[in-house]
Design brief:
- By secondary structure, the protein is mostly helical.
- It has helices spanning 10-20, 25-30, 33-39, 52-61.
- The protein starts with 9 loop residues before the first helix and ends with a helix.
Length: 65
């Protein structure tokens, strides 16, 4: 079964572009979705995963009971 579509989050996008990034309205509305995503941090790579030694250390420090 298909998930229902959610409305586009215009309030969050406009807040990010106009308030947090402080873009002038004409510049905000001229951006493509990819440009906006890049400006808002959407193109950042995720950090590298945890190394096995780090996981082992956490498991020793916080064992399951």
């Amino acid at each position: 079964m298909e998930e229902p579509r959610r409305p586009f989050p215009w309030d969050a996008v406009m807040h990010a572009g106009l308030c947090l990034l402080r873009l002038p309205p004409k510049d905000f509305w001229a951006l493509t979705p990819v440009e906006f995503s890049a400006m808002a941090g959407g193109l950042k790579g995720r950090g590298a995963g945890m190394e096995r030694a780090e996981l082992d250390a956490l498991m020793r420090a916080f064992p399951d009971r």
